[in-house]
């Protein structure tokens, strides 16, 4: 049976520290079927892939069977494009070097391409999103961790070993807050991730005497959503949390701009839902730290792709490009 | 009269904050004639170009006349490849936007290509030096200022506006030492440049009670050479100056590595003459700040091109590439 290329589909899988999103995508960038599962609860890669296969098989059947699928594109923290392995990912439950592309290929009997999750998102933005037509931009994902994908001269920067784009682990505050996953102090991810915002909230609550709605919040669930809800009610401490986070994010963005001079920085992920509460201080502190030649030139944009789609789209784009 | 391409020559000009080097180069990368003049003493770009023309004209005659010259390649701080202008260079005497490629073209009646001085050096290393055959590396020049040229996927990263590679202005110590040229606090250049080492020496002398050979040195001429001479005699304070500088440089290199994941970092310039005194702490602190996936992978190399040649070679390489 032959099929027109219009009928061919690709699978996109986005592995995050907390959850994994997957979907079946057509060439026009429509996510036809999608789902989500926990990453966290799988202490071994084998049970993770078993569940992924089980769940995806249902969607593959619904999409017309495995013969319609060209391949699988995967995005994962520390995912290596060249080797197909995830290596020492601090935010994933699996330690060491995981040959995930090989394992997924054996399970699904489909070609598999892997990259860093943020690189996948960058490709998604370039093909379908806010970076359409741009040749130089940086994608930054503000989720459980902080990831980045750098595009320069119209190409994704993989670096010599496939691991470029770990802006989240660059040190912004020397001897600053300890990152539990890496053991390093003062990295961007320690501040501008979901975990980072939570830690800032807990620290400010402890060190300040200011009255705050956050004092009555359940400490277990104190996340950027809770802080946001308080901030829009004018809670000073909550506003301070965003101001502090934006100050550090802005500094890191300034450093990134002075390095690769992108046309825009595309932000994506939970923290961006706070809108101007986080964007305003981020922009201000970015500009403040830029030397003159870079000032008032770089757009900070928020991804307008549906959060559930963007990473899947980006990952699936890898599958189209494979031979 | 026709000439074989073997006979065609190019001019390379490297404009630094203190001095400007120029030379006439053949296709094999031999600097046939070269010279040097002061940048600093020219408060206007016009008198600078007048002197440059006067000095170079002598060499051009010696090389067989202007008809043998294909073009001029120039490297300068904040030099823009796309527009041919130097824009707001904090370490040059000329402020604002200087259309230097146009002015030099009018004076010499030769095609002119401009880029950032460190970009030019990176091209020189890629064609003739330590980065031969590399597709991903970062060139860092440690001179009056700190410049950088980033090569990824075998291409120089210019950024959307032509100004990529200003690693020297990235902030490594938030609210750190003030940079007189930019007004920004805590940039790499404030510490790891010739000026930076001098300031560190003066600060340490003031804040420490330790006996030191540097206390008897002429404060006016206290530079990395003087510090080096004291350090190799075992002077503790001098050693501390290199340790401190290496700590900050190593941190900045770690951040650069986590961004673009180069195969090597090529260091160039006065500070590298201190050898292991600066390289050892730089390597140590780089490794210390890298997350595991990047550790023990990235070479820190010192350029082995003759200092007077490297920048001229790199700049001249631009002239070969022009149409």
Provide a descriptive summary of the structure in words.
The structure is a homodimer of 323-residue chains. Helix content of chain A is 37%, strand content 20%. The first copy, chain A, is α/β, with parallel strands linked by helices and 323 residues long. Chain A has two domains: 5-124 and 308-321, 2-Layer Sandwich (Nucleotidyltransferase, domain 5), CATH 3.30.420.40; 133-304, ATPase, nucleotide binding domain (Nucleotidyltransferase, domain 5). In chain A, the strands form three sheets. Chain A has a five-stranded mixed beta sheet with strand order 3-2-1-4-7. In chain A, strands 10-9-8-11-12 form a five-stranded mixed beta sheet, with helices on both faces. Chain A has a two-stranded antiparallel ribbon with strand order 5-6. In chain A, a hairpin with a 2-residue loop joins strand 9 and strand 10. The radius of gyration of chain A is 20 Å and the shape is globular. At the A-B interface, strand 9 and helix 7 of A face strand 9 and helix 7 of B.
């Amino acid at each position: 049976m032959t099929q027109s290329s219009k009928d061919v589909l690709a699978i996109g899988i986005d592995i995050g520290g907390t959850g994994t999103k997957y979907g079946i995508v057509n060439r026009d960038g429509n996510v036809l079927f999608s789902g989500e599962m926990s990453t966290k609860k799988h202490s071994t890669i084998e049970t993770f892939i078993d569940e992924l296969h089980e769940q995806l098989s249902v969607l593959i059947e619904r999409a017309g069977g495995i013969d319609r699928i060209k391949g699988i594109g995967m995005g994962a923290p520390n995912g290596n494009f060249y080797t197909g392995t995830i290596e020492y990912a601090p935010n994933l439950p699996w330690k060491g070097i995981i040959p995930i592309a090989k394992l997924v290929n054996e399970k699904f009997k489909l070609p598999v391409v892997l990259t860093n999750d943020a690189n996948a998102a960058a490709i998604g933005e370039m093909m379908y999103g806010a970076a359409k037509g741009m040749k130089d931009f940086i994608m930054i994902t503000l989720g459980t961790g902080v990831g980045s994908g750098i595009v320069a001269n119209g190409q994704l920067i993989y670096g010599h070993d496939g691991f470029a784009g770990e802006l989240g682990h660059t040190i912004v505050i020397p001897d600053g807050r300890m990152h539990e996953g890496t053991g390093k102090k003062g990295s961007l991810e320690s501040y501008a991730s979901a975990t980072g915002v939570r830690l800032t909230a807990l620290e400010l609550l402890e060190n300040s005497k200011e009255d705050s709605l956050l004092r009555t919040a359940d400490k277990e669930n104190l996340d950027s959503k809770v802080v946001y809800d308080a901030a829009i009610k004018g809670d000073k401490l909550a506003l301070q949390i965003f101001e502090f986070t934006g100050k550090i994010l802005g500094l890191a963005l300034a450093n990134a701009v002075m390095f690769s001079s992108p046309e825009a920085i595309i932000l994506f992920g939970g923290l961006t839902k706070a809108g101007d509460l986080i964007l305003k201080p981020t922009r201000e502190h970015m500009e403040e730290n830029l030397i003159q030649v870079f000032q008032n030139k770089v757009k900070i944009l928020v991804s307008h792709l549906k959060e559930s789609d963007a990473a899947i789209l980006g990952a699936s784009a890898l599958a189209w490009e494979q031979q």
